[in-house]
Amino acid sequence: MAGLNVSRTALRRAMAQPTVSRTWTQTAAKASAARTYATASKSLKDTFADGLPEKIEQIKTLRKGYGDKVLGEVTLDQVYGGARGIKSLVWEGSVLDSEEGIRFRGKTIPECQELLPKAPGGQEPLPEGLFWLLLTGEVPSEQQVRDLSAEWAARSEVPSFVTELIDRCPNDLHPMAQFSLAITALEHESSFSKAYAKGMKKTEYWQHTFEDSMDLIAKLPTIAARIYRNVFKDGKVAATQKDKDYSWNLANQLGFADNKDFVELMRLYLTIHSDHEGGNVSAHTTHLVGSALSSPMLSLAAGLNGLAGPLHGLANQEVLNWLLEFKKSVGSDLSDENIKKALWDTLNSGRVVPGYGHAVLRKTDPRYVSQREFALKHLPDDPMFKLVSQVYKVAPGVLTEHGKTKNPYPNVDAHSGVLLQYYGLTEQSFYTVLFGVSRAIGVLPQLIIDRAVGAPIERPKSYSTEALAKLVGAKL
After folding, report:
1. SS (H, E, C) 355-390
2. Structure pTM?
3. Positions marked catalytic
4. Most buried residue, 139, 212, 238, 475, by CB count within 10 Å?
5. Cβ-contact 7, 42 below 8 angstroms
6. Span of the secretion signal (predicted)?
7. Do 119 and 126 meet the contact criterion of CB atoms below 8 Å apart?
């Protein structure tokens, strides 16, 4: 029993608490007993549970003492402009600063690259470590990350009916639609939905949300790889190797694990694409649907449907398509003058320069910088990378002169496709699925936190145009 994820001590402690039902404790013990890996370190679930009382007390204290404080005013432009900049969401995992970029639990991407555990001999952080950090606020130990890798591998088996569902999809159905469909179908396995149907205490919501989230994340590489192998390859998917980390297994199931640099890229990619605070479409949608007590399966599927849009995650596919087209127009002449002319041709034709600009950022996206540094280290002479570098050098000046872009600098989408195609993953329509695997690692921790602290259903007030005109004293 010493090797189980839920120890005897933890079980006795849980059974002594009136807020945790004996049925739940027995379920957790049974689930843990099914896992064969061993660990002497504190589990992710126990780490989160130990910090939960303090977090709940923090929220109570904040609301009691400062609940009537005004955080800012809302303008009519913000209401009609997609709620940009309105301070109205709680998102614990990350905060996005317009100048500094993203911080995960207060840590920058370079700090995460330095502090988070890596695979033996690896250089990039493991996304397992970021998931731990986002959920608990703590940097995990190497052993805790190894244990989490093992737990996700142990949970990775995809039900046969989901596999059959994917196999029955037509190959011309977009990979993101197949991905969302498969995740929605996993609702059949939802611990949260089954427990809610039987009746459970609110204090147990987070525990079942945790179990569903862990199961979901564990199964995503196999689901994603099956879609990829069905649509673009021979339909054969390698089994999850229980002694390997999450990113290695994803690379292996896609068919690229023989290249250790691609595995490193997956570790970096899954880490930096995971979370970008709570206001983006995929994060907000997952949070919103979850606030209605929909299961993590249904909530994540909804968020991924938002990620599939061309103004969100689909942009990484569109950027590479644009770069390939742009390369044809500039040919082998990558001089500043030729790149500048081609950029102006793009803008003067009424099109935008994809991958440049961001709703919040007003500087180069740190996620772009981390990918650029990876490319400088691993593929400095790649022709597409050289093109991307030249566009990066010239585009900000052109966009500034053009005057219609608030942020003339590149975002994460401006670079990711070039890295993937260099290693042979050239199927652009699949790129957003990889983004979706990563985004699950970022949004599901907040879903667990939402249920743990008792976050309510989200229901902002809406007005008609006539009603808004009346509010501001305008006559239509």
Report:
1. CECCCCCCCCCHHHHHHHHHHHHHCCCCHHHHHHHH
2. 0.89
3. 312, 358, 413
4. 212
5. no
6. none
7. yes
In this prediction, residues 349-354 reach a mean pLDDT of 88
Return the domain boundaries, the chain.
Answer: 88-311+430-453, 314-423
What's the CATH architecture for 314-423?
Orthogonal Bundle (1.10)
Query: CB under 8 Å, gap of 24 or more: what pairs does 374-382 form?
Result: 374/124, 374/264, 374/265, 374/268, 374/419, 375/415, 375/418, 375/419, 375/422, 378/261, 378/264, 378/265, 379/419, 379/422, 382/418, 382/422
**Measuring CA to CA, which residue among 279, 300, 281 is closest to residue 289?**
300
CATH fold group of domain 88-311+430-453: Citrate Synthase; domain 1 (1.10.580)
| Distance of alpha carbon 153 from alpha carbon 261, whole angstroms | 22
Residue whose C-alpha is closest to residue 125's, from 136, 111, 135, 137:
111
429: nearest Cα among 271, 318, 270: 318
Residues facing residue 442 across a β-bridge: none
Segment 116-164, tens digit of pLDDT: 999 999 999 999 999 999 999 999 999 999 999 999 999 999 999 999 9
pLDDT at site 35 = 46
Lowest mean pLDDT among 25-39, 84-98, 269-283, 446-460: 25-39
- At 107 the three-state DSSP class reads strand
Within 8 A by CB and 6+ apart from 471, the residues are 463
Higher pLDDT among residues 106 and 15, named by residue: 106
Q: Say what the pLDDT of residue 39 is.
A: 53
Taking 3-state DSSP, the helix, strand and coil percentages for the chain, each rounded to the nearest 5, stand at 60, 5, 35
Same fold, 88-311+430-453 and 314-423: no
- Of 231, 113, 225, the C-alpha closest to 174 is 231
Amino acid at 438: S
